[in-house]
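Format notes (please read before filing issues)

Several people have asked whether sequences and structure tokens are stored in separate files. They are not. Every record keeps both together, in the order shown below: the sequence lines, then the token lines. Line labels are part of the format and must not be stripped during preprocessing.
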Amino acid sequence: MASTPHIATRAAQATPAPIARRMRGLSDRAIAWLFIAPTMLLLLAINIFPLIWTVRLSFTNFRANRPNAEVLGVGIDHYVSILTDPDVWGPMQATAHFLFWTIALQTLIGFTLAYLIDRKFRGHGFWTTLILIPMMLSPAVVGNFWAFLYQPQIGLFNYVVSFFTGIPPSSFEMLGSVKLAPWAIVIVDTWMWTPYVMLICLAGLRSIPDYIYEAAEVDRASAWRQFWSITLPMVLPFIMLAVLFRGIENFKMFDLVNLLTNGGPGSTTEVVSITLKREAFEKWRTGYSSALAIILFVAVFGLANIYVKALNAVKNR
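Then the structure lines:
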């Protein structure tokens, strides 16, 4: 029985003669671009077109609930209004508070867990798997799960706090208190995404060659000196990379806040993404919300670029 022709041979045989003659004149680079061009065009259509459309809408008074109304240009009025509106700077401050504490806690706890797991103690694989479970869950599941835990009457969280502090479980409400609600969201996000930071830090720790530690031991360097002179400097780029990823994600945090507090009580936990949602889909100020989205995009893009330059400087030391 004759052997089946190779798939490339069959594809060449099935190619029409005119196309085959044109393909023979193309370089490998041109053929590679020919194959990836459809995907690139699709990505451009999905990402670039909505961005250009949003920029266009940000200079108009367009409202999505009045598609047939006359659309007028307003220039940079939306941008000026946003940058001078105290009702926007309040959510910006709430976002900054959320961003700072989640990143600080996730970095500290994540690196500590990675450092402990890197010791490769007995059962470290089991504990690693257990720690990774929260980041595998959907934010919707996590939000509803913690909303139940935070219930003052039946939730487990208040009883755990009461066990360690002696405070009556029904005497405080995490999601209903102006002082406690922001910390309730910080706790949930830290619980969910600390494993992600731990994984990145663990990769950095295991990328350090063993011979560096062996040379340090020959020089009689203490464990503390090895940590500060070898471990921390060499894993620092990985820590900074984790901070970059989590910073970008937490700046646009929406789902957990929306499920847990929806910006309340009052506007205590109203991060800027909640404000954007309300302007776009409750007040139907589409042009205004488009301008706010562009401002957030420029802020994140600019800060990320500055941070990446700092990250590259640390890597090239």
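For reference, the curators noted about this record: The CA atoms of residues 132 and 195 lie 5 Å apart. The chain has a mean pLDDT of 88.
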